[in-house]
Design brief:
By secondary structure, this protein is α+β, with helices and mostly antiparallel strands. The chain has a single domain, classed as Jelly Rolls (Sandwich). It is 26% helix and 17% strand. It is built from 9 helices and 12 strands. An 8-stranded mixed sheet has the order 1-2-10-7-12-5-4-3. A 4-stranded antiparallel sheet has the order 6-11-8-9, with no helix packed on it. Strand 8 and strand 9 form a beta hairpin. Helix 3 packs across helix 6. The two termini are 39 Å apart. The structure holds 2-oxoglutaric acid and fe (ii) ion. The site of 2-oxoglutaric acid has 11 residues, from strand 5, strand 7, strand 11 and strand 12.
């Protein structure tokens, strides 16, 4: 069993926080989904490529390592272009994702996630931490989605499964390439992070593919697509459709939109990367807002270390002035802390040390 499934098993979720609303059937935002949002949650549209916008890195740029370091230190989020994932695969991925979420609710519920499981259809797990429900639904996959896809389409699931499996292979390779850039940008080598690309060539890293759907909403000003959170992964690669809605929280600025760029992928630095980098890399707080006219979808790939690995900063990144900020944790331990304490999980594993300013 992998870390994600072990953690989900030990932290079951109530069914009322798994089964989504029949979004198509409601004409008015129900009270259960009405949030009191401030205008700060709806930032003015900024110049998408200006200095105050999320960095975009061309992976073929000779300065990619330096740019990656800067983006991780300053933002904890960036977009990548020229990443090598075929456009046709992204189009097919989006098509199959829309095909799934366009099914009637009673059909989607045939593949509903069980309270202790982490694959299948249902609300985002973070729903348990908020009094109001979010205007979104999801479908989680690891490896083959066959078991659930067969429930959705008894005679027509092969293409869906093939696309999801091919995407996981491609995005897995790209994620490791970007992780390599991140580690390299910190001056770390294979010897500092032995579990990454081990010499025996066997991969033990773990990952989860999560399809998100944000249906058209009757009152977006009072609805929340995905509430503010950081990702518990080392890093997350996200394909968003051409519809915006993702925002990242920036110190002293507020919520900044992550504008969709055709063919680009969004990279989020997760909490485990923040721990591994000893706080040098930010784990960006982000949220998703919805809209009145477009059904938005996104596909997130969460990547973490092998189950038995304790994540802590390599000795190269610590010294007496910069002692380890957090105690070592496995992904499972961290997911358990997150399942119980959500956005306070990082604080709970923080070492009680006096830290010199970086
Ligand atoms: O839909 C998005 O753009 C973001 C999704 C996300 O943050 C997540 O799945 O953790
Ligand atoms: Fe996220």
């Amino acid at each position: 069993m992998n870390s994600i499934s072990e953690s989900f098993k030990s932290n079951p979720v109530n069914l009322d926080r798994i089964i989504p609303l029949d979004f198509k059937a409601v004409l008015k935002l129900p009270d259960s989904h009405t949030w009191s949002l401030s205008t700060a949650d709806h930032p003015p549209t900024t110049d998408p490529f200006g200095a105050g916008s999320v960095p975009v890195i061309d992976l073929t740029d000779p300065n990619a390592v330096l740019l990656t370091r800067h983006a991780c230190e300053q933002w904890g989020v960036f977009q990548v272009t020229n990443h090598g994932i075929p456009v046709d695969l992204l189009i097919e991925l989006e098509f199959q994702t829309r095909r799934l979420f366009s099914l009637p609710l009673d059909q989607k519920l045939l593949a509903v996630r069980s309270p202790e499981a982490f694959t299948g259809y249902g609300l985002a797990r973070i729903s348990t931490f908020f009094p109001k429900l979010m205007w979104s639904e999801g479908f989680s996959i690891t490896g083959s989605p066959m078991e659930h896809a067969r429930q959705l389409w008894p005679h027509d699931h092969t293409k869906f499964c093939d696309v999801m499996e091919e995407y996981q292979r491609e995005i897995g390779d790209l994620t490791e390439r970007i992780l390599g850039l991140m580690l390299g940008s910190l001056g770390l080598t294979r010897d500092d992070v032995r579990w990454f690309k081990p010499k025996d060539g066997r991969k033990h890293s773990q990952a989860l593919l999560h399809l998100n759907s944000y249906p058209v909403c009757p009152d977006p000003s009072q609805a929340m697509g995905l509430a503010p959170h950081t990702d518990s992964s080392l890093l997350t690669l996200l394909h968003q459709s051409s519809t915006g809605g993702l925002q990242v929280l920036r110190d002293n600025v507020g919520w900044v939109p992550v504008h969709p760029i055709a063919g680009a992928l969004v990279v989020n630095t997760g909490d485990l990367m923040h721990i591994l980098s000893n706080g040098q890399f930010k784990s960006a707080m982000h949220q998703v807002l919805v809209n009145e006219t477009h059904h938005r979808i996104s596909i997130a790939y969460f990547y973490g270390p092998p189950g038995d690995v304790n994540i802590s900063p390599p000795t190269k990144l610590t010294n007496h002035k910069h002692p380890p900020l957090y105690r070592p944790v496995t992904w499972k331990e961290y997911l358990d802390a997150k399942a119980m304490h959500f956005n306070k999980a990082l604080d709970l594993i923080r070492n009680d040390v006096h830290i010199a300013n970086r």
